[in-house]
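Course exercise 7: structure representation. Students receive a sequence record and must write out the corresponding structure in token form. The form below is the worked example handed out in class, using M20/M25/M40 family metallo-hydrolase (371 residues). Read each field label carefully; the graders check that inputs and outputs are placed in the correct fields and that the protein name is recorded exactly as given.

STUDENT ID: A-19
EXERCISE PROTEIN: M20/M25/M40 family metallo-hydrolase
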Amino acid sequence: MPGAAPGQPVKDGRVYGRGSADDKSGIIMNLGALRTFTTMPPVHLKIVLEGEEEAGDSLEEYVRHNPDLFKADVLVIADTGNYELGKPTFTTSLRGLVAADVTVRTLNSPVHSGEYGGPTPDAFMALIHLLNQVQNPAGDVVVPDLLQAAWQGHEPDEQKFREQAGVKAGVHLIGTGLLGSRLFGKPSVNVVGLDGPPTIDGSINQLTATATARVSLRIAPLEDPQHAFSQLKAYLEDPAFNPWNAEVQVNPVEGSAGSGFQADTTKPGYALAEMAMLHAYPCEQVVFTGAGGSIPLVTQLQQVNPDSTVLLIGCEEALCRIHSFPESVDITELHKMTLAESYLLMFLGDRKTTAEVEAMAMASKAVPGGM
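STUDENT ANSWER:
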């Protein structure tokens, strides 16, 4: 979908611009919800705005050292979105993340590929062989003893997913099992950076002495990041996967580890939030989905508030193209999500409504097949 022309940030009902969806839409959603009340909102609010998500996030550490500032009965984190435009959605699952720098050394220094090529092992080729062991031919991660979580929420449509991801026609999706499980519950791996051989423009006929790959490992929501890194390190440093006996070193990437998140949808706040969503999106059905990415701050807030309702909602549906170009946010979606949050605040402030919903939630738990 083409973006708006320069100087024209609005086109076809969408506002275009870097950060328009992630995370400015969440800020506007929160502020808009407050403006719907002619007097003070019916609940006590704490508003936290973060501006360092992509520049060395320090808020997570601040929460850890100042937990009392972040206590709340219900937490609304406006950093996700509906699985599809106009479809009310709660994100109830986030994968965690660990990253490792995998370095392979085979030579004291680079040497001429014509004079020494053949019997002399190239470090980059050795690195390729090593990384090839992390996935099986189907594309599943085979590092042992990593959690594999089954997904029971909304199942993504494969064709829509291919279109949203920009997968080339004829290229197969990788991994086995349901698409939702592959996206939200199973580990996945990819290389996000390389160092070693020169770029194509600077290529010369020589063997690489040292090569490093930065490996990103997405992990199941309840997986321990430290455990996952230890398993990845032990696997990659196992001599059985090192056919040329190259020197292999696996180091953690500082600040990269992040825990996943699993919401407790039986909390009373979820029933109120679902009711609020349905008021903003009449004739629709609320669904639960997951996100393959990680938001470590959410896990930290959950740890500070173990008995509270944590709601991940927002305006960042697939057409927003967050972290890409052209990024945008749908105005109608922004309006409806603002309305949903307004209803939520109203319901939370209405003790009678809250009591009724809590009673319904408790009654449903006592009935097989209840919500």
